[in-house]
Amino acid sequence: xxxxxxxxxxxxxxxxxxxxxxxxxxxxxxxxxxxxxxxxxxxxxxxxxxxxxxxxxxxxxxxxxxxxxxxxxxxxxxxxxxxxxxxxxxxxxxxxxxxxxxxxxxxxxxxxxxxxxxxxxxxxxxxxxxxxxxxxxxxxxxxxxxxxxx
Length: 150
Description:
single chain; 7 helices; globular
């Protein structure tokens, strides 16, 4: 007879074996997919990114969009391989600084009118959800020194 404890143990073992690996692959898919949309003008985030980088020197906003898109692709690719996880985390940390900038620089876009800072718009929610991505990256990054970790 299979007991609840046996089932629970098997489920927990499955999650322990596959959880971090699937988290790493999920991060890779998200960054590659969303990143590759930017250089090809297919990203729903394009208007927000263009307004956010409008003040940056050296490149035009559209050129910055392309750089950011390929940067995100690089983040995704580096999450695919255990040997490049440290690089993935470093690239992600730098990218996240820019990702949160619209919350401060463009509150008229990222928060509902008259409801700053407690009622984000869809764009604001899109940015704030990156807290989950940061947390996921911390979990994955916490495995880089473990032998045989996913």
